[in-house]
């Protein structure tokens, strides 16, 4: 899309994801065990003939874990630095079925057979709410009917009346993490995490059926969705 009103996803990606040195520290700062996600997709019938797309793949932790269980993994990220890391990891692992793609939710143009599964972790919150819906529509457009979408992200489930106290408490808990105060503050000041009572209707209006939602904490959620498409 080249229209002047279209969002530039790169500007919303966060400097810590775009900067080469910071991208190299990403796994240390945000460790992720993908085994549960792989098991979840296997439980939904993932086979060696399927295509999986990871939107906002970061350093490619999930694609490297799921690659042995499917035919094709497309690892999409708006950060060139992240994509280069995925490419290097893929070559080092000797995997031939992972395709690192330098694109965002909205600019990715899927080629080939529709995907059976899509995954996204900690990426959607970088977009404002209107563009979240556009991004979810883009995810759905890559999926076959009934395709599974697993979404994990920073989502608020605290009472809006308690927002200040909840955020201050969360920030206090994060003092012992590798993140600086500024990095933590930026999440609320410049990024776009939203409430679950807003995100769930977005998923449904974009064409997904939510089959499971889990709010792990007041700040994080997981969703398992099926692509139903949109009515004409």
> Got a strand count?
8
Instruction: Kindly provide the radius of gyration, computed on alpha-carbon positions and rounded to a whole number of angstroms.
Output: 17 Å
Largest sheet: 8 strands, mixed
Distance between the termini: 23 Å
Number of helices: 10
Percent of residues in helices: 25-40%
CATH topology-level name: Rossmann fold
At the fourth level of CATH, the homologous superfamily is: Vaccinia Virus protein VP39
Question: What is the domain tally?
Answer: 1
Instruction: Specify the structural class.
Output: alpha/beta
- Which whole number gives the mean pLDDT? 93
- SSE sequence, one letter per element: HHHHEHEHEEHEHHEHEE
- What global shape is seen? globular
CATH class: Alpha Beta
Q: Assign the CATH architecture.
A: 3-Layer(aba) Sandwich
Q: β content, as a range?
A: 15-25%
Report low-confidence residues grouped into runs of 5 or more. Answer: none
Helix and strand topology:
Elements: H1 15-18, H2 20-24, H3 26-29, H4 35-43, E1 51-55, H5 61-66, E2 72-77, H6 80-93, E3 98-102, E4 115-121, H7 129-142, E5 143-156, H8 163-173, H9 181-189, E6 194-195, H10 196-206, E7 208-217, E8 220-227
Parallel strand pairs: 1-2, 1-4, 2-3, 4-5, 5-6
Antiparallel strand pairs: 5-8, 7-8
């Amino acid at each position: 899309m080249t229209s002047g009103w279209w969002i530039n996803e790169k500007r919303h990606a966060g400097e810590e994801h775009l900067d080469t040195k910071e991208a190299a520290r990403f796994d240390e700062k945000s460790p992720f065990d993908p085994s549960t996600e792989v098991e979840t997709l296997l439980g939904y019938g993932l086979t060696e003939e399927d295509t999986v797309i990871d939107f906002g793949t970061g350093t490619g932790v999930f694609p490297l874990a799921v690659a042995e269980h499917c035919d094709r993994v497309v690892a999409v990220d708006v950060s060139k630095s992240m994509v280069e890391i995925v490419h290097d990891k893929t070559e080092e692992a000797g995997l031939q079925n992972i395709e690192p793609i330098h694109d965002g939710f909205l600019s990715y143009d899927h080629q080939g057979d529709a995907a059976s599964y899509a995954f996204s972790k900690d990426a959607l919150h970088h977009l404002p709410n209107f563009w979240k819906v556009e991004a979810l529509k883009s995810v759905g457009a890559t999926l076959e009917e009934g395709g599974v979408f697993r979404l994990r992200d920073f989502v608020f489930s605290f009472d809006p009346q308690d927002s200040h106290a909840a955020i201050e408490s969360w920030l206090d808990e994060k003092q012992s993490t590798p993140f600086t105060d500024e990095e933590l503050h930026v999440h609320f000041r410049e990024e776009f995490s939203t409430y679950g009572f807003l995100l769930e209707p977005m998923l449904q209006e974009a064409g997904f059926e939510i089959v499971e939602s889990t709010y792990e904490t007041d700040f994080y959620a997981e969703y398992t969705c099926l692509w139903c498409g949109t009515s004409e």
